[in-house]
Amino acid sequence: MGDCIFCRIARGEIPCSKVYEDDEVLAFHDINPVAPVHFMLVPKLHLASLLDAGEEHAPLLGKMLLLAPKLAQEQGLENGFRTVINTGKGGGQEVLHLHIHIIGGGSIPPMVRRG
Ligand code: 5GP
Ligand code: ZN
Predict the structure, then answer these.
(1) pLDDT greater than 90 at residue 1
(2) Whose CA is nearest to atom 13 of ligand 1?
(3) What distances in angstroms separate CA 57 from CA 4, 38, 64, 111, one per listed residue?
(4) Quick one: CATH architecture of 5-104?
(5) What is the rounded distance in angstroms from the CA atom of residue 7 to the CA atom of residue 91?
(6) How far is the CA of 74 from the centre of ligand 2 (A)?
(7) Mean pLDDT of all residues belonging to the chain
(8) What is the pLDDT of residue 23?
């Protein structure tokens, strides 16, 4: 996808603060972090969101989920972390290239406040 911002980051056209890279995925720090550690793990393949993922993407998605805790620990999140995947308009997704937010450090509030 030519002008997709995360595709452009994956191609090295836009700089990022890299956490990890291999031939299939890239992880980089969020430009506007919501916690002391906040980075994103993205596939290099352009997939707009989980709504566009199919059976053929299962190995890639599985790899990303298994990579998340490794990278989180490398970034100092030994006690755990939050993963967030916003999907589509209904999920508040702003960048339409699938990404897993990995967030932690400091105090992480409950995700949903009830009452
Ligand atoms: P979404 O709301 O789509 O789940 O999250 C998009 C995230 O991408 C936001 O947290 C935003 O701060 C981050 N972001 C947007 N543009 C850039 C960019 O150019 N570089 C980096 N590193 N992060 C970005
Ligand atoms: Zn893209």
Answers:
(1) no
(2) 30
(3) 19, 25, 11, 28
(4) 2-Layer Sandwich (3.30)
(5) 21
(6) 26
(7) 96
(8) 98
What pLDDT, on a 0 to 100 scale, did the predictor assign at position 114?
79
Q: Report pTM.
A: 0.96
**Placement of tokens 């916690």 in the chain:** 35
Other beta carbons within 10 angstroms of residue 30's beta carbon come to 17
Task: Give the 3-state secondary structure of residue 83.
Answer: strand
Distance in angstroms (rounded) separating the CA atoms of residues 39 and 29: 4
User: 72 with 55: CB under 8 angstroms?
Assistant: no
Write out pLDDT tens, residues 92-111.
Answer: 999 999 999 999 998 888 88
Among the bound ligands, name the one nearest to the CA of residue 13. Answer: 1
3-state secondary structure of 27: strand
